[in-house]
């Protein structure tokens, strides 16, 4: 939990450094730090500690990858959280997505990270890869995405879907294909699953 949130926090700091100087961008979301505390005399020897957030707690995006909560997407904080997700996605070439953005105003906590199955630069997230796919399909750019010069995901996603549908139209009918499976293909494979 600490590793994920503090990793996301480092990305948020870089995002802030790029966004804050832009004219009209304004305040940038901040992911608060979380600390692991060792309490050897306690029944539960480890605990996490973080700043208390006072005010209305809002989920700007959710863990199931459905981008920004539709009830909150028009708020400034919601739009900037969405832009932060897009920025991280673009900076990591689609390999990493910060998700489950929630908090009070621009202060965020308890975030999640989704990575491709192999991870990103040695880091594996705590959310399913499907969150990345859903974000790519659902994301709608806003004025903050434009201010940062982020590329639209709509055209990229539509091109990928079109290429996939074109390939599937050219595939032979599976019932007419003779099925041969090599010995290597029959060997069991390791699958990675993630629940959240």
TrEMBL record:
<dbReference type="InterPro" id="IPR011009">
    <property type="entry name" value="Kinase-like_dom_sf"/>
</dbReference>
<keyword id="KW-0418">Kinase</keyword>
<keyword id="KW-0393">Immunoglobulin domain</keyword>
<protein>
    <recommendedName>
        <fullName>Alpha-protein kinase 2</fullName>
        <ecNumber>2.7.11.1</ecNumber>
    </recommendedName>
</protein>
<dbReference type="GO" id="GO:0005524">
    <property type="term" value="F:ATP binding"/>
</dbReference>
<keyword id="KW-0677">Repeat</keyword>
<dbReference type="GO" id="GO:0016323">
    <property type="term" value="C:basolateral plasma membrane"/>
</dbReference>
<feature type="compositionally biased region" description="Polar residues">
    <location>
        <begin position="165"/>
        <end position="179"/>
    </location>
</feature>
<feature type="domain" description="Alpha-type protein kinase">
    <location>
        <begin position="1"/>
        <end position="153"/>
    </location>
</feature>
<keyword id="KW-1003">Cell membrane</keyword>
<keyword id="KW-0723">Serine/threonine-protein kinase</keyword>
<feature type="compositionally biased region" description="Basic and acidic residues">
    <location>
        <begin position="184"/>
        <end position="196"/>
    </location>
</feature>
<comment type="function">
    <text>Protein kinase that recognizes phosphorylation sites in which the surrounding peptides have an alpha-helical conformation. Regulates cardiac development and cardiomyocyte differentiation by negatively regulating Wnt/beta-catenin signaling.</text>
</comment>
<feature type="region of interest" description="Disordered">
    <location>
        <begin position="156"/>
        <end position="196"/>
    </location>
</feature>
<keyword id="KW-0472">Membrane</keyword>
<comment type="similarity">
    <text>Belongs to the protein kinase superfamily. Alpha-type protein kinase family. ALPK subfamily.</text>
</comment>
<dbReference type="GO" id="GO:0004674">
    <property type="term" value="F:protein serine/threonine kinase activity"/>
</dbReference>
<keyword id="KW-1015">Disulfide bond</keyword>
<dbReference type="InterPro" id="IPR004166">
    <property type="entry name" value="a-kinase_dom"/>
</dbReference>
<dbReference type="Pfam" id="PF02816">
    <property type="entry name" value="Alpha_kinase"/>
</dbReference>
<keyword id="KW-0808">Transferase</keyword>
């Amino acid at each position: 939990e600490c590793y994920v949130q503090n990793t996301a926090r480092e990305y948020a700091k870089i995002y802030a450094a790029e966004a804050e100087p832009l004219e009209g961008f304004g305040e940038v979301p901040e992911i608060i730090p979380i600390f692991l505390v060792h309490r050897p005399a306690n029944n539960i020897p480890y605990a996490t500690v973080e700043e208390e957030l006072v005010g209305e707690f809002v989920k700007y995006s959710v863990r199931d990858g459905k981008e920004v909560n539709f009830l909150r997407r028009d708020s400034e904080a919601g739009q900037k959280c969405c832009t932060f997700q897009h920025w991280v996605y673009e900076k990591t070439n689609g390999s990493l997505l910060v998700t489950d953005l929630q908090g009070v105003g621009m202060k965020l906590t308890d975030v999640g990270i989704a990575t491709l199955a192999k991870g990103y630069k040695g880091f594996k997230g705590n959310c399913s890869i499907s969150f990345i796919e859903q974000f790519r399909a659902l994301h709608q750019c806003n004025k903050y995405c434009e201010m940062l010069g982020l590329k639209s995901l709509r055209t990229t996603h539509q091109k990928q879907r079109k290429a996939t549908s074109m390939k599937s139209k050219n595939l032979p009918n599976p019932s007419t294909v003779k099925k041969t499976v090599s010995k290597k293909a029959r060997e069991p494979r390791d699958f990675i699953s993630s629940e959240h």
